[in-house]
Design brief:
42% helix, 11 strands, elongated, seven-stranded mixed sheet, 12 helices, alpha+beta
């Protein structure tokens, strides 16, 4: 069940119910597998499994690119599966797809790096993927609401959280309340700042920022407790009822499109936060080190929720070493030539 299905509740209640549902298994299962090749080229395979409409609307920029190979499989237990794949000549090319230059795109962004360190007989590979902070409402500092330990617990799924040594059911209820407050306040701040900018640009408005700021908290609580849905028009209508000022009606009729960015951010949050994310990195040669909790041969794995990278960047890393067989062959040939030359020289002296 997606958050959008409960928008007939007051905004606060709909968001609370949405947060509770986000603690359940995600609507979409997403597997992102990155294969590092010895020459520095990269293959990425991404699998989306779930409802077909939700798959088509996943928050990744690559879905709008035509050069990814895409393969739909038949539904299994009412779940569709889309497999997309692409070969990249370099990590720079990978980043163009996974971290587009257009900063207005509300997508999950992954910025990768790859170092190849040639050591003659061996080549070391150091690879990292940083899933960039994906809170679309970054106007407030989460440190004013939550500690890093509380953030860690929020990111865990419910089953894992309850078995975590740091979990306390009573304390966690307080954590949830502070998290809800941070989330509501962050969304409101984004919407509010857009409203302020519209009022400042049109000199015909009589509603000043000073007057609006004096009623900022009143508006917030009215929207949270009384407004149903989160569309820009519904929220602006709520602002008008909260402060009873005619300028808000003008904003609704003339400048509603200025709030499209807020609408896009809400859509991104609702989509991205419902899903589960599984990352795999396959390295060439022998795996030396990684920050992965799951290792199988030269393959590493991470199982993340949206809240692992909601508040701050999350980096996954792997380092491996591959034998340069040709270097041993060359070294052997050089040694052989040296021995032959030495023997030849000794024989000539006789």
């Amino acid at each position: 069940m997606k958050t959008k299905e409960i928008k007939n509740y007051p905004w606060k209640l709909s968001l609370i119910l949405g947060i509770l549902m986000l603690m359940l298994p995600g609507c979409l299962d997403i597997w992102i597998t990155t294969q590092i090749r010895p020459d520095g080229s990269i293959e990425q395979i991404i699998v989306f499994q779930g409802d077909s409409a939700e798959i088509a609307d996943v928050p990744f920029a690559l879905m709008k690119e035509g050069d990814w190979k895409k393969e739909w499989t038949k539904p299994e237990k009412d779940k569709y599966k889309l497999i997309v794949s692409k070969e990249f000549n370099s990590v720079k090319d990978l980043n163009k797809s996974m971290n587009p230059a257009d900063t207005n795109q509300q997508v999950i962004r992954i910025n990768a790096s790859l170092q190849r360190k040639f050591r003659w007989f061996f080549t070391r590979y150091v690879y990292a993927e940083t899933i960039q902070r994906s809170n679309p409402f970054p106007g407030l500092d989460y440190h004013n609401y939550l500690t890093d330990e509380e953030i860690r617990l929020i990111a865990l799924n419910e089953e894992t959280r309850k078995t975590d040594p740091g979990y306390d059911s009573v304390k966690y209820k307080v954590t949830e309340k502070r998290f809800e407050e941070f989330l509501f306040r962050s969304m409101y701040e984004d919407f509010y700042q857009q409203l302020v900018s519209v009022l400042a640009e049109d000199k015909s408005f009589t509603l000043s920022k000073q007057v609006l700021d004096s009623k900022k908290d009143v508006i917030y609580h009215f929207l949270i407790d009384s407004v149903k849905g989160d569309s820009s028009d519904e929220l602006l209508s709520g602002v008008g009822r909260a402060i009873n000022h005619p300028d808000i009606q003008v904003v609704r009729s003339k400048y509603l499109s200025r709030f499209d960015g807020f609408k896009t951010k809400m859509k991104f949050y609702e989509s991205a936060s419902d899903d589960s994310y599984k990352f795999t990195i396959r390295m060439p040669g022998l795996l030396l080190q990684t920050n992965s909790p799951k290792i199988e041969g030269s393959e590493t794995g991470w199982e993340l929720t949206y809240y692992d990278f909601f508040f701050k960047d999350y980096t996954i890393t792997a380092e491996s070493r591959k034998v340069n067989t040709w270097a041993f062959i060359v070294a052997g040939l050089v040694l052989l030539v040296a021995l032959v030359s030495l023997i030849t020289a000794l024989l000539r002296k006789r």
